[in-house]
Amino acid sequence: MRAFIVLLQKEFIQIGRNVFLSRLIVAFPVLVMLIMPLTMTMDVRNVNVAVADADRSPVSNRMISHMEASERITLAGQCGSFAEAMKLLEDGAADIIVEIPSGFERGLAKGERHKISITANAVNAIKGSMGVQYLMQSISSALEEIREGDGTASVSDLVSVQNRFNPTLNYRHYMIPALMIMLFILICGFLPSLSIVGEKESGTIEQINVTPVSRRAFTLSKLIPYWFIGLFVLSIAMLVARLVYGLAPAGSIGAVYLGALLFILTISGFSLTVANFSDTMQQTVFVMFFFIMIFILMSGLLTPVDSMPQWAQTFTLVLPPRYFVDILRSVYLKGASVCELWTSYAALGGFALLFNILAALTYRKQA
Amino acid sequence: MKDTVISVHELTKRFGRFTAVDRISFEVKRGEIFGFLGANGAGKTTAMRMLCGLSYPTSGRGTVAGFDIRSEGERIKRHIGYMSQRFSLYNELTVFENMNFFAGIYGLSRQETARRAGELLERLDFASERNTLVGALPLGWKQKLSFVIASIHRPEVVFLDEPTGGVDPLTRRQFWEMIYEEADKGTTIFVTTHYMDEAEYCSRVSIMVDGRIKALDTPEELKKGFKAGSMDEVFGMLARQARRGE
Q1: Which residues of A touch B108 (CB under 8 A)?
Q2: Residue B73 CB: number of other CB atoms within 10 A?
Q3: What is the pTM of this model?
Q4: Cβ B84–A203 below 8 Å, yes or no?
């Protein structure tokens, strides 16, 4: 027991005396939580629209002024012809072209179908499709206003849309839990393995290996400090999310911490296992990067797992962050409870156990 | 009480096709200062690592402090101290914190640790450096500190791997005085070295060439047997036979 206490003491002293590391542990989460949510946005604003109005009627004017009034649409120019508008699109001055055919107003009155055509630059697929959607909304509400009083039910009366759990469709609220997870992966994933490999490089691990200290005690002493650090990082991140973005978990804070506790154990255990198989810092960092890349891109952090191909979806089952992404988003945005998410918690618990047993087993005192 | 503390029979370590240690056999008695000599790459460190339970032998057997080196490595570790070639105390811990750490690892209680640390600081004349970060100490001091920490838990055998490498002559003298003091208390010292004047200080000396022990006796007998004036000459004669490069 005393051996374990001195091991733990030593870890904390080492981290505390490492000025750079201790500052990083505080500054990193604050900076990431302050800056990243502002930049990692998929909200599409400022869609530039070029209008080729061949109709030049009160109706088309009405539609154009409606577009101008929309806060998400910027009029890039009114062109005499489609070709002229296309030029704007090619130059990058416009994202979308709206072409109103001549005789549109007359056709509307007679019940003929003259189609408005919308041409979007879909290089940025999201901007393209969102822009088209904004335009459709703008055009249809403009037309509704014009038709008002003629008795037909308008589109918005027939369909009502409600966005549950993230009512303002704020992409930030979707990304903040993901950022927290990335913080864990970076801090609790990298630091334990760097600490072990650091001891290998400086030769101190050999001095430990020649003592009767147990593998379990040594592994735990490398794990527990990062548990505390991880929970500290989580607290800072949650505080910033609450104070700056007004986002508090809809579910219980306990559910967030329980998930984090299990996830940190998992990722740190994984990190220690990697360290046991590497001899140098370069090796560790490279291997960790490889896995972290997979974790970040395939765990549903940035893109939903549901839209991946089936084989990839099956593969995500063996990625521990996937379960934590599920837990954190559900608790934060939907207010889900531990009971509802028990399968994810159990999976994380299983991974935590697996990686830490593996870390203790692969640590060799005698080669 | 001249009992055997280390006993090795036909000990061998191979790395792939390279035989680092080739069927060596010897015995070390309690309280001896056993000099383990050899050129760079002769296999000294590899042999020592097997004795300390850091490395498994490929074949052969041996016991240290009564425990088998193959199957009871962890039990051996309770009874030995080890000072490696590379300085391996924690630079970011103070002198006392390092002592406290290693004492604690070997299970010394708080009170025992405090008493033992006080004693060792006194002996090193180090009391004023108690709270100095180890990283800030000069090399000679670091080496002396490593030695007392390797013996902080009063082990039966202390293994020293080139303990005086890169150290000035005066510090080397002091270092050997400390080794003598420790041996007088009945601790067995197993030491590798490059310095032939140091070999003269040992009770018995073995000389390894290309993974094999070529000579093993007291310095006097060796000099007599090789008709040499100093250990340096003895070593020169044997080392010249080496076929392995540095």
Answers
A1: 2
A2: 23
A3: 0.82
A4: yes
